[in-house]
Amino acid sequence: MSANGTKIQIELKGVSKAYGGVIANKDISLQVPEGKITGLIGPNGSGKTTLFNSIVGYHPIDEGSIAFEGREISTLRVPEIARLGMLRTFQQTRIYKKMNCVENMVISISHRGGGGLAGVFKSAKDAATVERAEHLLEFVGLYSKRKLISGELSFGQQKLLEFAMALMNQPKVLLLDEPTAGINPTLINGLIDRLKRANEEFGVTLFVIEHNMRVIMNLAEKISCLAHGELLATGTPEDIQNDRRVIDAYLGAH
Ligand SMILES: Nc1ncnc2c1ncn2[C@@H]1O[C@H](COP(=O)(O)OP(=O)(O)O)[C@@H](O)[C@H]1O
Ligand SMILES: [Mg+2]
Question: pTM for the complete prediction?
C-alpha cells in the first residue's frame, strides 16, 4: 500500500538485464499502481521493451526482483505469468492474418487454455465465447468488420483487434508496447478513448510504452522515463514535462 492508499500491483527493485556486453536495464526500481494507467517513455534503445520482457517473464533478469501482487515472479516464465493475469502486446502486431476477427478473438483464449486446434474448434462453437468476442469487437469499434479476414484490416484496426484479443483473456494488467505506433491521428484518438474506457470499465491496470508525448501525457497518471537503460525520473505528466534530466535526455528532441 502506498502513502495515498493505492495498492501497488507490480514492484520492481534494482532490476538489471544485459544482452552480452549491452546493459539494457540497470538497477531499475519502479512501481505500477493497481487499476491505474502508468506510462514508460525514453529514447529508442533506452531499454523500455527489455523491461516489459522482463516483467512478463520473456527472459530471466540478471539482478533485482519483480513482484506481482506481492509475489516474486522474476523466476516465472510467460505462460505462468499470463495465468496470473498479466499480458503484453507487441510493437508489431501478432494476429492471424488469414483468420477473421472473431476467429482471432477465439484463438487468443484457446492458446491460454491449451487443447490445441481441437480447443479452438470447440471454443468457436461455444456461443458464450463468440458472444464475448463480438461484444469486445464492438467495444473497440470493429463489430462491422468481425467476419473480415484480419489481414485486410488497416494497421490501426489490426492494433485495435490485438487489444481486443488481449481483453478477451480478462487480464488484470496489460502491458502495451507503443500502441499508437503507425496509427493515423484519427484512429489514435479512438484508441486512447478505448484504453481509458477499458481501464475504467474493466478495471484493467495499464502499463504503456509510448513515443507520442501528447498521448502519454493525456493518458497516464504517472510516468517513468528511461535513458541509456537507467531510470531518469518518475512523476506526474507535469513533473516529467518539467524535469530537466528528462528534457535534456528525451523531451528536448521531441
Ligand atoms: N535480443 C536482444 N539482443 C541483444 N541486444 C538487444 C536485444 N534486445 C534489445 N537489445 C539492446 O538493448 C538495448 C535496449 O533495447 P530495447 O529494450 O529494445 O529499447 P527500447 O524499447 O527503449 O527502444 C538496445 O541497445 C538494444 O539494441
Ligand atoms: Mg521498444
Answer: 0.92
| Model pLDDT for residues 165-216, shown as the tens digit of each residue | 999 999 999 999 999 988 888 889 889 999 999 999 999 999 999 999 999 9
CATH code of 1-85+171-254, in short, is 3.40.50.300
- List where CATH 3.40.50.300 sits in the chain: 1-85+171-254
Q: Which letter, b or e, does each residue of 199-226 get, where b requires 16 or more Cβ atoms within 10 Å of its Cβ? A: beeeebbbbbbbebbebbbebbebbbbb
Mutate to test the pocket of ligand 1, among 17, 22, 61 (most ligand atoms within 8 A of CB): 22
Select from 174, 166, 178 the least CA-distant residue to 46: 178
Taking the CA of 229 as reference, the closest ligand is 1
- Ligand 2 centroid – CA 91 distance (Å): 7
